[in-house]
Design goal:
6-stranded parallel β-sheet, about 25% helix, 10 helices, 2 domains, globular, Rossmann fold
Amino acid sequence: MRAVTISEPGGPEVLQWTEVPDPVCGPGEVIVDVVATAVNRADLLQRQGFYAPPKGTSEILGLECSGIVSEIGDGVTGWSRGDEVCALLAGGGYAERVAVPAEQLLPRPAGVELATAAALPEVACTVWSNVFLLAGLERGDTFLVHGGSSGIGTMAIQLAARAGARVATTAGSAAKLAVCRELGAEVAINYRDEDFVERVREATDGRGADVVLDNMGAKYLGRNVDALADGGRLVIIGMQGGAKAELDINALLRKRGSVHATALRSRPVRGPGGKAEIVAAVRHDVWPEVERGVVRPIVDRRLPMSEAAEGHRVVAASEHIGKVLLVSGS
């Protein structure tokens, strides 16, 4: 089969479309013939040599995919050859075939075209596990999500708004903020020339946000704490703004606030908090909303998988709204 490989750590130019061995279907796994995958910022970090895949998983990039089941491993039930699926991966999506633990499969949602379904697993699992299962966002809460026009941001806005929360978000242009409003954000903040702490306080009569979902890390840590309401929960899922910062514990104590830092890729497949548990929750709670069309994948563009380097350039430059897909066989 062919796959995107990394010749050496570096820029997008190190990505190569080459022949590699086919994956082997182990017990409890299925082989998916990949129709599409999506570019995530973690892929850019791995390409640069900063984010190694979990031990024992594929070194090929790609944290999600959609496609057709072509092989069933020992012990797998509930899936058949020919099933149209999408999947959460620890790696391997930038390829024509990938081995997937069966518990990480999701059926293609009714009404969603198969390639487009590749835009769903990573964002749906990330948002549901962090915003709802961990932070416990509820109806009437105020929710702040940074990077509202990203793949995760567009999904977070939709799910939070559907849950009855009041959504505030940040983005870097009028066009991106317009999309965020269309998806359900009530408070749209241009981080280039507005103070999100001030805007959130204004919108909540000084109360602040009950839940903050942050992709920036160090750069926003202090201001995110400032933006929290009493009892607020800050969930950090990225480090685009750096890995080290000073935390004012006194400010956090006064608000009885909490800070959570989580990752999805490194979780075990099974066990409490594992990927199987998260995928099952997404299938139960998110998939019906997708199939009704009230929550939808936002796709900025599709590129041939052989042009993965261009996809990485687009995401690195933040030129996109929603997801950038890489389509196999095109």
